């Protein structure tokens, strides 16, 4: 099968034209490969233009901290739609869309299970922003209010068995026992996967991950 990413990169460059900012939303369930896709696209776009024209803006930096989730009794659902600062993400994305100043963004550090404020900078030279996260295309508020901020929407899909296998490996790598990983997937990851697949709105491009 031909790699679809070069064609997507060309479409982005064509659609972006001479715009100061062009925002691509990449959504999909946990472990579908959003971060990897965004990074590969960034590299392709930079290669095609011969300059650093693209940057990645992850939703995961807007996780509520564990202390907030503990106080709300939601620690066992960390990663669910209601455990993100959607307003903070939207406000930052609007600043980024302006395109005329540096914008510091938070990055989620999975090894520490927390977000690091100001861990990356989006600069005015970054005309194309690849923002990625599970819930960017959800069809209900507050997530649905983000839709006008995107110029192109990409949705990744994958069968549950593939996502389950990837998630098991992820949690084992991060120190969970097999039983703990399986419990977390069953009670948290799988509900989130099913929610994304059932309630994501229409995308301009759909990839079926293998």
Automatic annotation (TrEMBL):
<dbReference type="Pfam" id="PF00485">
    <property type="entry name" value="PRK"/>
</dbReference>
<feature type="domain" description="Phosphoribulokinase/uridine kinase">
    <location>
        <begin position="23"/>
        <end position="207"/>
    </location>
</feature>
<dbReference type="GO" id="GO:0016301">
    <property type="term" value="F:kinase activity"/>
</dbReference>
<keyword id="KW-0418">Kinase</keyword>
<dbReference type="GO" id="GO:0005524">
    <property type="term" value="F:ATP binding"/>
</dbReference>
<dbReference type="InterPro" id="IPR006083">
    <property type="entry name" value="PRK/URK"/>
</dbReference>
<dbReference type="InterPro" id="IPR027417">
    <property type="entry name" value="P-loop_NTPase"/>
</dbReference>
<keyword id="KW-0808">Transferase</keyword>
<protein>
    <submittedName>
        <fullName>Uridine kinase family protein</fullName>
    </submittedName>
</protein>
């Amino acid at each position: 099968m031909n790699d679809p990413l070069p064609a997507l990169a060309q479409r982005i460059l064509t659609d972006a034209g001479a715009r100061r900012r062009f925002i691509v939303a990449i959504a999909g369930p946990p472990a579908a490969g959003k971060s990897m896709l965004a990074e590969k696209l960034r590299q392709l776009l930079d290669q095609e233009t011969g300059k650093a024209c693209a940057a990645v803006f992850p939703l995961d930096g807007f996780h509520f901290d564990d202390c907030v989730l503990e106080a709300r009794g939601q620690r066992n659902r960390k990663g669910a739609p209601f455990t993100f600062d959607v307003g903070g993400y939207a406000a930052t994305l609007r600043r980024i869309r302006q395109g005329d100043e540096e914008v510091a963004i938070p990055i989620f550090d999975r090894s520490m299970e927390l977000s690091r404020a100001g861990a990356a900078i989006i600069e005015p030279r970054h005309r194309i922003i690849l923002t990625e996260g599970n819930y960017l295309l959800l069809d209900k508020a507050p997530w649905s209010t983000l839709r006008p901020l995107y110029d192109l929407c990409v949705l990744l899909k994958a069968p549950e068995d593939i996502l389950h296998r990837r998630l098991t490996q992820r949690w084992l790598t991060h120190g969970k026992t097999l039983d703990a990983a399986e419990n977390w997937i069953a009670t948290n990851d799988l509900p989130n996967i099913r929610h994304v697949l059932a309630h994501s709105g229409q995308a301009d491009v759909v990839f079926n991950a293998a």
